[in-house]
Design goal:
By secondary structure, the chain is α/β, with parallel strands linked by helices. 19% of the residues are buried. It is built from 8 helices and 5 strands. The chain has a 5-stranded mixed sheet.
């Protein structure tokens, strides 16, 4: 709690307009945002008076509800952005990558960031369900930019005998170079016609997709309920 309070005080001080706050109040906020101000060992009374003064002055400052609420909204927005940035570390993609050969296939798996989920679609032209799955993964790649979505023809993997037409389309899911899931003839899990939402639900059943990314935070366009 102390860290949050001090961070809020600093944010309020930094965000105040130069003409909207008196010099005395600015100085009070500056002092409150620096709680580790040092005092000499013999200055205990001064330190106690300082702390009491800050408490009273802080109470006076927060009485301006309209001004404080506007600043609080900005502070909440910044906290949400900071949290989202921390949770969204790692490389970003946003597209379905075409792998040309087995070497690129191995590199996409083994040389990727250890926290990145890599989903590879093994397909061939003319195989039922492959085109629909490629279209679905293209849509999901745009929505889950922290996931690396790839596709490669079975004949280009260098192990075409392992990926016969009977097992296509196949989805392989890797993380940290390790195979997490292997779905053969995956289109059989869906109806005759399927779309990105169906593939998304299927992958979510196995916990293979991260949480959806937060929408962009527009200036001032955030409901308090959403923030909380």
């Amino acid at each position: 709690p102390k860290g949050v309070i001090n961070d809020w005080r600093k944010f309020k001080l930094e965000s105040e307009d130069g003409d909207s706050l008196s010099l005395s109040k600015k100085e009070i906020l500056r002092q409150m945002s620096s709680p580790h101000r040092s005092f000499s060992k013999d200055d205990k009374d001064t330190r106690e008076r300082f702390c009491r003064k800050m408490s009273m002055q802080e109470y006076e400052l927060i009485q301006d509800e309209k001004e404080d609420e506007s600043c609080l909204q900005k502070y909440r927005k910044r906290c949400m952005q900071d949290m989202h940035q921390r949770l969204s570390f790692g490389p970003k993609y946003g597209y379905l990558c075409e792998l040309q050969n087995g070497e690129q296939f191995l590199e996409a798996i083994e040389k990727e960031h250890k926290t990145t989920t890599v989903i590879v679609h093994i397909y061939e032209d003319g195989i039922k369900g492959c085109d629909a799955l490629n279209n679905s993964l293209t849509c999901l790649a745009a929505e889950y930019s922290t996931v690396k979505f790839c596709k490669i023809k079975a004949s280009s993997t260098g192990a075409g005998d392992r990926f016969s037409n009977e097992v296509l389309p196949t989805l392989l899911v890797y993380k940290g170079g390790e195979l997490l899931s292997n779905f053969i003839s995956v289109s059989e899990q869906f109806s005759e016609e399927f779309f990105a939402v169906d593939v998304e639900s299927f992958l979510n059943e196995y916990g293979l997709l991260p949480e959806r990314e937060l929408p962009a935070l527009e200036n001032g366009n955030m409901d308090e309920q959403d923030v909380e």
